Amino acid sequence: MPESPYPMIPVSEAIDIILREVKSLSPVDAAFSDALGLVLAEDIFAAEPLPPFPASVVDGYALIAGDTGSRQIIGNQTAGYVADLQVKPGQAARVTTGAPIPSGADAVVMVEDTAERDDRLELTAPIASGDNIRQTGVDIAAGQRVLSAGTVLGPPEIGVLATIGHVTARVYPHPRIGVMSTGDELVPPEQTPKAGQIRDANRFALMGVIEQAGGIPVDLGIVPDRQGGLAQTIGRGLIEADALLTSGGVSMGQLDLVKPWLAEHGALFFGRVNTKPGKPATFGVLKGKPFFAMPGNPVSALVSFENFVRPALLKMAGHSNLHRPRRQVILSHKVRHSPARTEFQRAIITRQTDGSYTAVTTGTQASSRLLSMLGANALIILPHGQGDFSAGSVVEALILD
Ligand code: AMP
Ligand code: MG
Question: pTM for this one?
Fold first, then answer.
C-alpha cells in the first residue's frame, strides 16, 4: 500500500500548530450598531456621568424630606426638559420617572404614599432625604471604564455603547473565509447530476458553520481537479478573503492536488491527522493567509471544520475563548471504536434528573453520511488507544449547542 508522505500528528498537536500560526485580524472602526458579536479591541471610558442630572426614580412629588405637615403643590416637572421650579419649605412639585429633580427638593415621595387634595399634598408614609433620587453618576461615573478590550459585544454591551454615545468602536472584524469545493464530480445543487456526478453539499454546509461562528463566507464556487482552475480560484480567494477553506482533493487519489499545490506555493504545516473522520485534514499558510484543506466527505469536512477551523476563525476575530465546552457523558449503548485513531462520533446528549448527561449516537457514522450530523448536539470523543466502549462508559464530549 503506498504510504502518504505526510506524517500523522495527533489532533491536539494540529490545533496547537494552527493556533500558533493564525493571528488576530487587524482591528477596524465599526458603527456600534453593526458590532453585535464582535470583540472589542479598545478599552471604553464614559466621558459623562449617567444619569447626567439627579433624576426621579418614581412618579410622585419632589419635596424637602425634613418638612412636616401638608405641602403646597407648585407645579409639574415631567421628564425631558428642565422646568423653572424652585421647591421651598412647605412646597412640593409633581415629578415623573426620569424627570430632573427641581432645585431645593431633596427627596421624592412616590404617588402611592400620598393623597392630593386642592393642590395640597399629604404624605401617608415616612420619607427621608435622598429617597427615590438617582444621584448624578450613580449608574456610570464620568471617566469610568465601562468596557474592556477583549469583551465580546453582546446586546447589553451594545446598549452601554449607545448610552454613553460611543457610536464608533474599535473592533476585530468578522473574518472573511473563502470557501471552494474541489472535485470533477461536483455540480451545483440546482443542477441535475449526469452519470458519475453528485451535487456539491460541502460549500453550503461550510458557509453555514462559518456564519454561525461569526465569520463571513465568501463563495468561491466549484473547482475541478485541475491545477489551473485551483490556482485561479485560490488567487481570487486570497484577494477577497482573510483565510481559505477547501474541501476535497486531499486524499491519496491521483487527482488529489490540493496538498502538493499548497506545499509548492505556500507553507504546509500538516497533511494528516490521527482522527476519524478527517484524517487527510491539511493546514498551511499561503501568502500570509491561513489555508485549511478539508477532506471531501461531507461529515469529514464539517467535523474537521469544528476541530480545526472554528478555533482559528474565533482567534482571527479576536476571541480568547476558542474552544467548545466539554463535559463527561455516559454512553447509553455500546459504541464500536478502532483504537488506531481518535474518533469524533456525532451524538445527542440529554440531561438526566440527577444532573448527569447521557449520549446516544446518531446511527451509522460513515463520513459520507451527512444525516449523521442531523440533530447532533455533541461530538463524543473516543480516544486513540482504546477499543470498543460498553454501555455505561463515561467519555468526554464537545458540546455543540
Ligand atoms: P475527496 O476528499 O475529494 O477524495 O472526496 C471524498 C468523497 O467526498 C468523494 O466521495 C467525493 O465525491 C465526496 N465529495 C467531495 N466533495 C464533495 C462536496 N463538495 N459535496 C459532497 N460530496 C463531496
Ligand atoms: Mg475529490
Answer: 0.95
